[in-house]
């Protein structure tokens, strides 16, 4: 199965972000409508073509451009503890490239990053 970012961001890694939409392999959001800042989350490229080692989060301002960015790796957030290399591949034969992932730590890390920049509490609005 190819990397289906829309399915990943809307089903398995649901973030209750205002104005969120997925375009290609990237999630865009305006977590605080009163703020000019926007959020972009995509998959961080891995060592091989079509492989990904985590999520890259970029904070954007319409006039200043990129304000900040960070990479949250699958390895650092124990997403795939049973894999020798914690990467996902969009050419893998699994049902979906991220199958078997434990996303709790990674989800909380994204929520903490969002809370640094926006007056939203994703933890309180986390989908069940």
Detail the topology: elements first, then pairings.
Layout: H1 5-12, E1 21-23, E2 26-29, E3 38-45, E4 51-61, E5 65-73, E6 88-89, H2 104-117
Antiparallel strand pairs: 1-2, 2-3, 3-4, 4-5, 4-6
Summarize this structure as a short list of keywords or feature phrases.
single chain, 128 residues, alpha+beta, 6-stranded antiparallel sheet, 2 helices, 17% helix, globular
Give the helix proportion (percent range).
Answer: 10-25%
Amino- and carboxy-terminal Cα gap: 26 Å
- Discrete helix count: 2
Mean pLDDT: 89
Task: Write down the secondary-structure element order.
Answer: HEEEEEEH
Low-confidence regions? none
Q: Per DSSP, what share of the residues sits in E-state strands of 2 or more residues?
A: 25-35%
Number of strands: 6
The biggest sheet amounts to:
6 strands, antiparallel
Shape: globular
Alpha-beta content class: alpha+beta
Output the radius of gyration: 14 Å
Number of domains: 1
Compact overview of the structure:
With 128 residues, the chain is of the alpha+beta class. Helix content is 17%, strand content 29%.
Protein described:
This protein is an alpha+beta fold and 128 residues long. 17% of the residues lie in helices and 29% in strands. Strands 1, 2, 3, 4, 5 and 6 form a six-stranded antiparallel β-sheet that branches. The model has no long low-confidence stretch (mean pLDDT 89).
